Amino acid sequence: MTALPATPAPATSLPAAYLPGPVNPPARLLMGPGPIDADPRVLRALSTPLIGQYDPVMTGYMNDTMALYRQVWATTNEATFLVDGTSRAGIEAALVSLVRPGQRVLVPVFGRFGHLLTEIAHRAQAEVHTVEAPWGQVVTPAAVEEAVVRVRPHLLAVVQGDTSTTMCQPLEDLGEICARHGVLFYTDATASLGGNPFEADAWGLDAATAGLQKCLAGPSGSAPITLSPRAVEVVRARSRVEAGIREEGDADADDPIRSNYFDLGMILDYWGPRRLNHHTEATSMLYAARECARILLEEGRQAVIDRHALHGRAMLAGVRGLGLQVFGDVAHKMHNVVAVEIPAGLDGDAGRAAMLADFGIEIGTSFGPLHGRVWRIGTMGYNARQDTVLLTLAALEQVLRRGGVRVPPGGGVDAAYAVYDEVRAP
Ligand SMILES: *Cc1c(COP(=O)(O)O)cnc(C)c1O
After folding, report:
1. Which terminus in the chain has less CB density within 10 A, N or C?
2. Apex CA 42: angle with CA 39 and CA 45, to 5°?
3. Domain segments of the chain as ranges
4. In 23-38, which positions are buried (b, 16+ CB within 10 angstroms) versus exposed (e)?
5. Which residues form a coiled coil (predicted)?
6. How many angstroms is it from 405 CA to the middle of ligand 1?
């Protein structure tokens, strides 16, 4: 293993001359829970020239992006656009714009990203309530409804796919519960969108946000968002008019959205026909997001989900074929990631380090109660492919063997092949 170059010590007086070389990252196969290798088409889109944000070509790209993501989200929502920033920029924009201080937010928590929703809702000064499921399980619709009746929240905020536990929370029954009780319904679909079913309109969602670095085959740095007409009304009632720059509107000056950057009303006016100035568009990321959606829709929404289901199933069979145990309720596992229990006696971090150093393959560690207990292996976006699954399983077998774990020779690759052969059989 080559040693990493030392980082220069912090300067105490004048900084020493230090000129590192250009970035030249090694070849890696990113098989963790995200980020994954971006599709080369997305990398090419990222390197195309910049143009001004009011150039008609650029506003055309913005309109394309809105139309493309309406299809990705399965929605007719006019308000479908991008928040510039990583996935949590989308989460934060949704919560800070939809929730007034003191309003109640109910969060089903079944992993780390549920805790993130509670934390962001707290910072938006919401009164936060939770309904919890043990890690490795999802929350039942009955438990959500019981909590909705008890808490009477303004907003239900739920993660769809929580990569920390690999669980995919069923959402299809929650919209009806929210509608019956007059609750806004928001989901963070960052890890799941593209690789698992998602129906914004059919499931009654008022708001949903995502990122590119999971099943959408892009880098992190752009957060697709969609808002129902009802969510837009809630946002519009509070959106701040920026003095001297934006026209007078009906903004609630007493209780404005407590962020300029994440004021969804202002961002909507920027994306919408008024094209009012807000931030400088992250042009390169918009190119990337647009290309991600084009790639997905070209293959077909259902075909992409089916591909994630197939390669997820092959990886699941493969790790079991290596004699490894899988964490969590597999019936509710996301298609695109599996949590594998680290065999007793093996140092999980050393195993991951060997995968990276010896094979150039990155797999994921875990957080909180699962740290040191499981590895997380992803098959998502551009990396949801047969070659990546077989390579990862072949490499993992060798790492386990060298770590002293007894594994059935070829057991991982054989089991994955069996899944593929079944699909190919006439
Ligand atoms: C990966 C992931 C995120 C990532 O957020 P970033 O701001 O892009 O790091 C958010 N939510 C969920 C559910 C995730 O799995």
Report:
1. C
2. 155
3. 29-36+301-424, 40-297
4. eeeeeebbbbbbbbbb
5. none
6. 33
Q: How far apart are CA 46 and CA 252, in angstroms?
A: 38
Atom of ligand 1 nearest to the CA of 113: 13
Known binding residue 100? Answer is no
Q: Which atom of ligand 1 is nearest to the CA of 213?
A: 8
| Class of residue 217 by CB neighbours under 10 A (exposed 0-12, middle 13-18, buried 19+) | buried
CA angle 22, 27, 30 (to 5 degrees): 115
CA of 88 to the centre of ligand 1 (A): 6
CB atoms within 10 A of CB 149: 11
Residues of the chain falling short of pLDDT 70: 1-5, 8-11, 240-254
The two most distant CA atoms of the chain are separated, in Å, by: 72
User: What ligand 1 atom has the least distance to the C-alpha of 163?
Assistant: 15
Interval between CA 239 and ligand 1 midpoint (Å): 26
Q: What percent of the chain has pLDDT over 90?
A: 90
The protein residue whose alpha carbon is closest to atom 8 in ligand 1 is: 87
pLDDT digit string, tens, across residues 132-148: 999 999 999 999 999 99
Q: Which residues pair with 187 in a beta bridge?
A: 158, 208
| Rounded distance from Cα 135 to ligand 1 centre (Å) | 17
Residue 155 pairs with which residues in a beta bridge? 105, 184
Residues 243-281 have pLDDT tens digits of: 555 554 545 556 889 999 999 999 999 999 999 999 999
| Distance separating alpha carbons of residues 131 and 139, to the nearest angstrom | 8
Q: Give the residues surrounding ligand 1 with Cβ less than 6 Å away.
A: 34, 86-88, 113, 159, 162-163, 188, 190-191, 211, 220
Which atom number of ligand 1 is nearest to the Cα of residue 211? 8
Task: Give pTM, 2 decimals.
Answer: 0.94
CATH of 40-297, one of 3.20.140.10, 3.40.640.10, 3.40.109.10, 3.30.300.30: 3.40.640.10
Ligand 1 centre distance from Cα of residue 21 (Å): 31
Residues in the chain: 426
